[in-house]
Each structure stands twice: as structure tokens, then as C-alpha cells.
Q: What sequence folds into this?
């Protein structure tokens, strides 16, 4: 009878301390692997989310840029477009709050914000009713871009982070450096405008973005 009782005690003995430690170590290793996997997935999802958001912001900004250029026209005999190496000023035709035809001066530049960062900025004037209003707004747009921190102006909108930019014109069948309004001569607008925007490093988009705009009434036959 002693042998069956010894066998029963052996079956009820359970795990030894070493076996428990090995099991706990294995469970801890599995938990660590699972946590690292979840962390990697969360990081990848965050990066994809940041990129998707940056792409959406860029698309919205470029749509506004294109809409401003599409609506560019001279106000009487005023210039429709002017680039001085820092700011692009646009005379944009549109309507006022009552739906009556009215012009605005639009300006784009890259400058400092209140937080000390650098951003692509858009400024716009109120609706303009006279040549005197336009002259005042045209000068205000230049003064705004030349200020130390144009991003602090209440009339300015921070579009997206940027560290630099440049503008080129498509004229006489070739791309060239953009010129000031008086150099365009009798042409109200160049045939095309090339935007080159430098985005800072970050989790979203970065590097040089190039976007070409062509005048709506320009056709391939003009090439």
C-alpha cells in the first residue's frame, strides 16, 4: 500500500520554485514582446495620422493659392500680380458681403509667427471700392510682408509651416525667375506661376514642394 500512496503524493506535488520562475520569466517576455508590438503599431498609426493631416492641410492651402491666381485681374489699370522676392501680391476680383463686384488685395509670404516659428502666410484686404482703396491696400500688403513677424497680424492666416519659398513665371514659352509688375509690360498675368515651398522636417510632410499654375485661358496651342 505504500507504493500507491507515494505515487499519489507525486501526482499532487505541483510546480517547483524553478519551474514557477521559468514560467513567470516566459510570461514576462511574452508581455514585453506584446507591449513592444502595440507600441510600434501605435507609433506607426500616429505617424500615418500626422502625414494624412499634413497632406490635407497642404491640399487645402494649394487650392486657396490656385483660387487666388485664378481670380487675379487688374483693377482698372492696376497690376494684377507683383513679386518682389519676398511677397506675392495679387489683385483678386470677387464680391463683397452684399454680392456686389469688389476687388481685394491678397498677399502671400513666408514669415515669423507669434510663437517664433516660420509659416506660409496669407493676408487679405477688405473689399475695395475705389482706386484709392486699392493703393492703400497694395501698400499695406507690402508693409505687412516686410514686418518682423507678419504672422502676428490679425488680417493674416497661418497656412502651414514653411521655412522658405520662391516664385517663378512661365513667359515666352519657358520658366524663369518671377519679376515685378512693371517688368510684365502689357501682359496682365504670366502664362504660368511656379510655387516652390520649403517645408521643415517633421512627422508629416517635409522637403521641397513644387506646384505649377497655368492661366485658365492659356491653351496648349500657345506652347
A:
Amino acid at each position: 500500500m505504500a507504493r500507491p500512496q507515494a505515487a499519489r503524493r507525486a501526482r499532487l506535488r505541483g510546480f517547483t520554485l524553478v519551474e514557477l520562475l521559468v514560467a513567470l520569466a516566459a510570461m514576462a517576455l511574452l508581455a514585453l514582446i506584446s507591449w513592444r508590438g502595440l507600441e510600434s503599431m501605435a507609433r506607426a498609426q500616429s505617424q500615418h495620422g500626422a502625414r494624412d493631416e499634413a497632406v490635407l492641410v497642404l491640399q487645402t492651402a494649394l487650392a486657396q493659392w490656385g483660387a487666388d491666381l485664378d481670380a487675379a485681374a487688374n483693377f482698372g489699370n492696376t497690376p494684377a500680380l507683383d513679386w518682389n522676392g519676398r511677397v506675392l501680391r495679387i489683385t483678386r476680383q470677387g464680391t463683397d458681403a452684399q454680392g456686389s463686384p469688389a476687388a481685394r488685395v491678397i498677399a502671400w509670404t513666408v514669415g515669423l509667427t507669434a510663437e517664433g516659428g516660420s509659416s506660409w502666410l496669407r493676408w487679405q484686404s477688405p473689399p475695395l471700392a475705389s482706386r484709392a482703396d486699392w493703393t492703400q491696400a497694395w501698400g499695406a500688403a507690402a508693409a505687412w510682408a516686410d514686418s518682423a513677424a507678419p504672422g502676428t497680424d490679425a488680417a493674416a492666416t497661418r497656412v502651414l509651416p514653411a521655412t522658405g519659398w520662391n516664385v517663378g513665371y512661365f513667359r515666352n514659352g519657358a520658366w524663369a525667375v518671377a519679376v515685378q509688375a512693371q517688368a510684365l509690360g502689357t501682359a496682365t498675368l504670366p502664362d504660368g506661376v511656379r510655387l516652390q515651398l520649403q517645408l521643415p522636417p517633421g512627422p508629416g510632410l517635409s522637403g521641397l514642394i513644387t506646384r505649377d499654375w497655368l492661366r485658365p485661358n492659356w491653351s496648349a496651342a500657345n506652347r
